Amino acid sequence: MLALALSLLALAVRVPYLYLVPRFTDELGEAFVSWLVARGQVTPWFGMVAYYGPAHMDIVALILRIFPNSLAPRVLAMIFGALTIGATYFLGRVLRDRATGIIAALCLGTATTHIVVNSHLAYGNAVTPFFTTLALTWLVLARQKNSSGFLVLAGVSFALAIQTHPVAVALAPGLLLWLLMPRAQWVWFRRPGLYLAALATLATYSPVLILIWLQPKQLSNAVGSRGYAISTDHSLGVYLGNLQGLMVELLRMVGAVYRDLDRPLAYLTDPLTLVYAILVPIATVVALRRGRSILPLALASSALVIPYFNRQYETFPYFTRYVAFLLPLIYTAVAALAVDAWEWLRTRPQFSSTRARQIAAAAAVIVIAVLLAAPLFRTFTYYEQQTRSGRSNALFLNITQIVDATRSQKLLLDKSLEQGEFPSGGNLHFAFQAWFDFENRPFALVNTETSVTSALCSGDKSFLIASFQAADRASANCRVTRMLGYEIPTRPGRDNLSYGLYEISPE
């Protein structure tokens, strides 16, 4: 019940701005493929990219089949995000105690990255933290209870995690080392449970392996098309640069630092970031000494492996989704440190009196409350800034609402909308196409630069979604009335786009 309560609390802080911020990214591409699966037009057995599995795609397809709504993918992401809070509670509880689970879950519940990215964007890799946290929890229980069943569950959960994004495989060396490093644990080699877990992991991940075996070029093509994110230069200098990028990314995630600072060490001038920069190393050392080595080993393994093949650490917070699965581990380690510190204080003579303990407890509550409230405050400040600056889906959603409510009129989408490229691959033109396809709203694609604009004006009234310039071209041959529209920022380094919804009628 406590895990459910924490998940519902996390859900409450994830609902605001769900559809408004961030702007729709190329997440709609994944959602669109899921929509094709739901309609039986694409096979559900393989992922949309060679190194992705079909798990998330098929879950979204099932939801779209039951609730064919364009907002469903983000709702599902939000639900997975909230469930990850409950999973984090269980991880903290099995590693130490209930208090550790509660603090860790609350910290993740207000974490800016997990709210804005992992609970708002409908990417498959946005749900990776849910499966990795489950995998760690099952693995701890497998060793605590000497249970083959929990080991199998850990393998299945881990395979689902790397189906959603292969970067999660960076946890594997640390987890295997933790499981088998003690000599007493070598008994697993004489039990069927270890081999069943290995088979379950391979079976769950088999769609990716089968696709690569059948069409090996798809993997190289997928890797080659993502040079912006996948590092192909493995020299020491590049590796160390990527490692620095990862460390800065982790600091920004726990510190909720949205602004770009010019120097990596400048992030330590932020109080919240500095607090975590001090706490996390201490927490990992204490975890090693207190028998919770799975956390530092998993974190160390990830820190060593991820920079080898990941090079994308900019455009905060969008690309934090690649490494956000480390957050439950970080917060669990910090939570366990907090409980350890409290237990140590309780044994000090200075805190033997009831009043001293009450003062210490009040101070601890205040510190934890600040750690929880600060990132949440920064997140909602970010929402307001994005909305005020036009970096939200407000205009998009207003237009779709009007168009969906008036299905009798013909709808035209102009090619000029392709200029509306957003961070993380979002494209305004494709966003409208995917949206109206989800809503089963007929539309036609037009190009006012090459089409005879008089053809746009024939027949009855129609809607046109286009840039201001495209609408001006159409107005040469018919009456064009702007219903909504204004200038919006696009991808950094690109010109802003002025676009809107127009009603076209013959002269």
Please outline the major beta sheet. 5 strands, mixed
Count of DSSP helices? 20
The span between the termini is 65 Å
What value does the Rg take, in angstroms?
25 Å
Q: Helical proportion?
A: 55-70%
Taking pLDDT < 50 over at least 5 consecutive residues as the criterion, the unreliable ranges are none
Sketch the topology as an H/E string, one letter per element: HHHHHHHHHHHHHHHHHEHEHEHEE
Helix and strand content put the structural class at: alpha/beta
Strand content: 5-15%
Gross geometry = globular
Strand order of the largest sheet: 2-1-3-5-4
Provide mean pLDDT, rounded.
91
Account of the protein in words:
This protein has 507 residues and is of the alpha/beta class. Helix content is 59%, strand content 7%. It has 20 helices and five strands. The protein has helices at 2-14, 27-38, 55-66, 72-95, 98-109, 112-116, 128-145, 148-164, 172-180, 192-214, 216-224, 236-255, 271-289, 294-309, 327-346, 354-388, 394-405, 428-438, 453-456, 468-474, and strands at residues 410-414, 444-446, 462-467, 479-488, 497-505. It has a five-stranded mixed beta sheet, with helices on both faces. Strand 4 and strand 5 form a beta hairpin. The chain is globular, with a radius of gyration of 25 Å.
Summarize the structure.
The chain is of the alpha/beta class. It is 59% helix and 7% strand.
